[in-house]
Specification:
The protein has a single domain (36-198, 233-285), classed as Glycerol-3-phosphate (1)-acyltransferase (3-Layer(aba) Sandwich). It is 41% helix and 12% strand. The chain starts with 12 loop residues before the first helix and ends in a 5-residue tail after the last helix. The radius of gyration is 19 Å and the shape is globular. It is α/β, with parallel strands linked by helices. It has ten helices and nine strands.
């Protein structure tokens, strides 16, 4: 499954208008490609990424580091910490790779099932290249030499209280490590600093969460007290750093002898790398707002 990017429109207002007209014409005539997972590269680049990059560059002012650790081609699994009440860290990670990586790679993120139960949100997620966090789907993407992203903390990460900021939650049972091993895909640990402060979660309205069938209902200093205004993320300073890849090809050959031990050790190594990097980056960044 080869990645593709439609060439951008010519520079200038006339070029942008011509590009928009061409985009609208292809939408109306159905002359565009969508892969088996629902990924729509042109829609992603023309509609979704510009909106995400406005936040990335102008609101959060993200610094992205270690891009040399992300391959220009071929399979790899990016494993990152997760935080911030809403998964804006996932969107910033995807947008940054799309804009700043020399190969402008499309990150195929694995998301929670809840996302795909919501008609509009599920459709947008699929169009942007996301898919359910299912081992079989992840394996198919990696086997097709895609760049895949996963957040093993899941809701435990984005729904944790502000007092536990930048402390990694449990990484499940290491399913991501098994998937990477089976696909012989290198694992790239990734540390994201900045998302913890966008919605400081000081409480959880558990009864309301149960009524709405949500994993949590956040209470922040601004939400829900200020209504829609309280849902605007705070403009914290972000750093995203990709650590040195961890190869899995040699480990994959030994997994038959002690599979659970190898998977657990690999998952712990990834987790420890992310936590150590987070600790360093938090100190380096200093104040979240400046």
């Amino acid at each position: 499954m080869a990645e593709s990017r439609r060439p951008g429109p010519p520079a200038g207002l006339a070029g942008r208008l011509a590009g928009l007209a061409g985009f609208a014409r292809r939408r109306l005539t159905g002359n565009y490609a969508v892969d088996e997972f629902g990924f729509d590269p042109e829609f992603n680049e023309a509609v979704l990424m510009p909106a995400a990059l406005a936040l990335y560059r102008n609101w959060f002012r993200v610094q992205m580091r270690g891009l040399a650790n992300v391959p220009s081609t071929g399979r790899a699994l990016i494993v990152a910490n997760h935080s911030g009440v809403l998964p804006l860290d996932a969107i910033m990670l995807q947008a940054g790779l799309h804009a700043e990586h020399p190969a402008h790679r499309s990150l195929r993120l694995l998301g929670a099932d809840l996302v795909y139960t919501l008609p509009l949100l599920g459709s947008i997620a699929r169009r942007s290249g996301h898919t359910k966090a299912d081992p079989d789907l992840a394996s198919r993407l990696l086997t097709a030499d895609e760049l895949v992203g996963v957040f093993p903390e899941g809701f435990k990460g984005i729904g944790k209280p502000f007092t536990e900021r930048y402390r990694l939650q449990r990484f499940g049972r290491g399913g991501f490590a098994r998937t990477a091993l089976e696909a012989s895909a290198p694992i790239i640990p990734c540390a994201i600093v900045g998302a913890e402060e966008i919605y400081p979660m000081i409480g959880n309205a558990e009864l309301l969460a149960r009524l709405l069938r949500l994993p949590y209902f956040p209470l922040t200093p601004l939400f829900p007290w200020l209504g829609p205004l309280g849902a605007v993320p705070l403009p914290s300073n972000w750093i995203i750093e990709f650590c040195e890849p961890i190869p899995t090809r040699e480990l994959a050959g030994a997994i038959a002898d002690a599979p659970e031990e190898i998977i657990a050790d690999l998952a712990d190594r990834v987790r420890d790398t992310i936590q150590a990097t987070l600790d360093d980056l938090v100190v380096e960044r200093g104040p979240a707002f400046s």
